[in-house]
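Worked Example 4.2. Consider the chain below.
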Amino acid sequence: MMSWTSLQSLPTDIFRVPPASERLSFDTYTFLAYILPPYLAYHVVALLVILPGTRILRIALWPLIAFLAFRAAVYVDFTGGNPQRTFLNLVFALTMFSFVMRMLEWTLQKDPLKRHLRPAGSSPSVLMDALDLSTNMRGVGWNWSKSLRFPPDERPTSRLWFVLYVILSAWFHSFISGVLHLTVQSFSPETFTVLNGGTIFDPTLPPLIRYIRSTILSILVAFGIYTVMQLNYDIATLFGVTVLRQDPAQWPPVFDKPWKTDSLRDFWGYRWHQLFRRTFVVIGGWPLGSLFGHVGYVLGTFLGSGIFHNIVVVMINQNVEWWCMVLSFGMMAVGIVLEQTFTRLTGRQVGGWLGRVWTMAWLLVWGSMMVDGFARAGMFASSDVSNTAAPAKGVVEYYVPAFDRWLRACAS
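Applying the procedure from the previous section yields the following structure tokens:
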């Protein structure tokens, strides 16, 4: 019989993130007992939300499925005993979190979702529609994404050349992401290659050199995130087009040259990837928007993003402050509200070269705080599983430390 002390600690025990020593290694048992149930349930709910008369059932199922997803996220260990592969646990946890948020949206949906874009020559199929919905993060071809603007597609229209283009894009971004990862590590091997992590703001340097160095690191990490996201999207595109026989039109570009942005609204609302936009809106945009209007919607959406990215940090290192991600993304919302206030007062949109300077300055100031959170969590210590940067390893490991020494020499 459970003691009173055990009952008191039950809520904390249920929702705690266990240390690596208590996690269960990924094997056939954990796959069947922990991973498969939330995956199957996710696809079942995707099927239910396109069928009429299923809302009560969806509402009844959501708490159980959410618990199954949480249990899988915190108890299954994919590292195989290698701490540098902690990022695998992170990716899985974020997947489960996205599942839960998407299913929450589907649970609240009153009317069945409708699909209006299918592969050429295919017949309508409820099962295939459910499969597409469950893997379609931006809602391409669905009625719930009508307000979303997709980047122009300059890739080949021929299916064969499209596939070859995506393969080359995956190879290119895989190599570049590996080089950028190695470059960041080479700036400070004693800090960025260990799981304890460390700050990008080196306190031994004077302020000017310290912030020049942290800015360089932040830019490298930003491009690293861009290349990794593009690589993953290329792989998913290949799978969808070649294995699932989807139409290339169902996989529009995921980025639109984010370095060309001239406003925060343009950057976050269009040029940066929109894969988790709906998740952030569900977490914070709708709740705060219903209370405080448009400003609440913007602030809530970015706070939702901050919560999402805070999960990234906590899954790697539970000692990093919770507020770093929430504050950083919250300030992005403040920047967008400032842009909208400027437009209302002046009648002009933020843009041009002044808009570009403003946007990059705001992104770097608050983006550096995000990157610092990732660095202190030990994220940069993750190993490059594919070893894609091997051809450039010698060059990077020679010139990057030399450049860092030169920076430090400038401070003396």
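Residues 205 and 236 are 43 Å apart (CA to CA). The mean pLDDT is 89. Compare this with Example 4.1 before moving on.
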